[in-house]
Amino acid sequence: MHLPDWQKVLFYVLAFASIGVMFAQIWLRAKVWRQGQPIDWKPNWLANIRTYILEQKKVRSSRPQGGAPMHLLIFYGFLSLLLATTLLAVNTYSPWKFHRGTYYLVYELTFDLLGALFVIGLVWAIVRRTGFRPKALTSEWQDNWALVLLLVVGVTGYVLEGARIANDPKPWDAWSPIGFATAKLMGSLSPSVYLGIWWFHMVWVFAFFALIPQMRLRHIVMAILSAGGKSEQPWGELKLISLEEVETTGQIGVTLAKDYSRWHLMSLDACMECGRCTEVCPAHNVGKVLNPKRVVQDIRSAMVSQTPVAEAVSEEALWACTTCNACVEACPVLIRHVDMIVDARRNLVAEGRLSGTAAVVLRQIGSTANAWGAPRSSREDWMKDLDIPLCRDGVDFDWLFWVGCAGATDPGAVKTTKAVAELLKKAGVKFACLGQEEACTGDPARRIGDEFLFQERAMENVSVFQKYGVKRVVTPCPHCFNTLKNEYGQFEGKMEVVHHTQMLAQLIGEGKLKAAAPGQDSVTYHDPCYLARVNNESDAPRALVGSKTHLNDEVFLGQPSGNGVLAEPERIGRKTLCCGAGGGRMWMEEEPSQRPANRRAEELLATRAKTVAVGCPFCRIMLDTGIKQATDDEIRLVDLAELVREANQG
Predict the structure, then answer these.
(1) Would you say the pTM of this structure is higher than 0.85?
(2) How far apart are CA 284 and CA 290, in angstroms?
(3) Fewest Cβ atoms closer than 10 Å to its Cβ: which of 50, 390, 641, 643?
C-alpha cells in the first residue's frame, strides 16, 4: 500500500503521539512508585520475565474450570501479536530483511492462528463478565470497554488482512487462512476502500496505546515488570529491620505506602482485580473483614492520597490475617500481600496499638521465652523416663531435635514430641535436645509484628546453636521449621533444617523404619500451610503412610497421582485450607462462627475417614476444637509420627 506523503506524516505523528501519551502516563505513575524505598536485591530481569511468560502456573492452577483458559488465550495471544508486530517493525525499519521464504510462510500461518485465539479469549471474557461473572471478580464499565477495545483491534486486524489480500492478492496468501477466508467474503476492493479500512484499524491501535495505562489492561505490562523485578526471597522469610534503619526513619514498619519498597508499589499496579486472592483467603471465607484484593486496592489508593496504610486498610483487617500465604500462592502477578500486611502490623505494635490476647503472648515470649507462658524449667517435663540426650551434657550428636514451645507444653503436641523421639532412637539417629536452653523461635512475635522481640529470641537461639556447633535440625513444628530454615540465616544461623515428616520419610526409605499401614481411605491428612504451601513439602508426609505422590511438583489442584492411601480432602498440597492458627491468630480471640478451623474440619470429615492426621502442633490444636464442633462422632486426631510409631512398636 502506498500512502500519500501527507498521510505518512500524519501516521507517524499519531503513532508517536499515542505512544508518547502512554509512556507519559507510565512515567507519572513511576514517579509514584519511586516514592517507595529502593529495593535491596538485584533482580534477574530477563530470567524472571522468561519464567513468568512460559510458566503461567498461577492462572493454570486456579479456577481450572472457570476463567483460567480464557486468561491464557488472551495473555499468550496478546504476546504473540506483540511479537509479530515487533518482527514486522524490525523487518520494515532496520537493514535486516528477513520476511521471505519458508520463514515468512511459517510466520504468517503461526501468528494468523494465534491471533484467532486472542479474539476467542476476548469474546469469552466479554460473555463471562456480562452473563457469568464470578462473585470475587470486580466489574466496572471501563473493564468492559477495555475488552471491547482489544476485540475491535483484533477483529479489524483480520479485516485489514482480508482487505489487503482482496486488494492485492499474492500466491502465498493461503498461509494466512483466516485473512484469506475474510478476503473471500469481501470480494474485490478498491485501493481507497482498503486505505479507509487501514486507517480505521490504526485509529483503534492508537487509542489502545493512549488508553492502556488508564485501564485494568495495564496489568499486562505491569505484571511483566513486576515479575521481572521480583525478589528471590522465600515466602516464609520476612524482611529484617535493623536498628540503624529505625534510627534513620524514626519508625518501625510501614506507616505510609511510601515506606514499602518500590517493587511492592509497582506490583500493586499489576493487580488485575481478579479476586483469586480473596477466594482462597481463610479469614475472608469465614466472614471476617479481611479481603486481600481490597487490601491491594486500598494500599494502591493510599500511594496517591498519602493516607496511613492502617487507616486505608483498617486495623481489623490487618489483624485478621493468618499469614498463610494462600493469597500470594493464588496471585497470577506475584503480589506479596503478607509482606505488606506484616509491615503494617509492625508499625501498629511499635505504636502500642495492640491489646488483648495477642499482646499477652508477646509478653509471654519476652518473659518466659515460651509462647504459652510456661517457665523454662517445664521444657524438659516431657522427657521424664525417656532418657533423652541433652546438648549440655556433652553428648555427641548429628541432629538437634528442636521441640518448640507447643511440643514441650501442649498435651497433644507432647504426644508428637515423644513419638518422634522414640522413632529417632529406634532408627539409630544420633540426636540431642536443648531442654531448658531452647527458647521460642520468635515466629509468633515476628508475624504479629514485634520485630525486635523476634530478633532477641533469634539471636539468643543462634548463640546457643553456635555454642554446641549445631549444623542440622529436625523439628515437628512447621512454624519453627520455616523460621529456622528461612529466617535464621539473617542472624548467621545457617544450617540444614528438616521437618520431622521429611526425616521419617528418609528413614523409611532407608529401611530403618516401617511406614504406617492404615486401611485404604481410613485416614485423611491435613497439609499445614507453613509446610505444604510456604515450603512446598507435601510428599514426605504422605510417604509415612505408604503413599507415593508428586504433589511437590504438580501444578494443578486435584487428587495426587501415584499410589495414594489417604482419603484426601478437597484442598491438598499447596492449595491446602488454613486452620487459622498462623500469624499469631492462635492466641487471638475470635467468634466461634468465624474460625477457619471449623471450615477445614468439615472438609476433612467429608472424606468419611475416622482418623485425621496432622503434621503441625498448631493445626492439631485448632482442628481439635473444629472437629468437636462439627461432629459428635468419635474421630481420632493424631500426628503422622504417632501412626509411624504404632507401626514400629514391638
Answers:
(1) yes
(2) 5
(3) 50
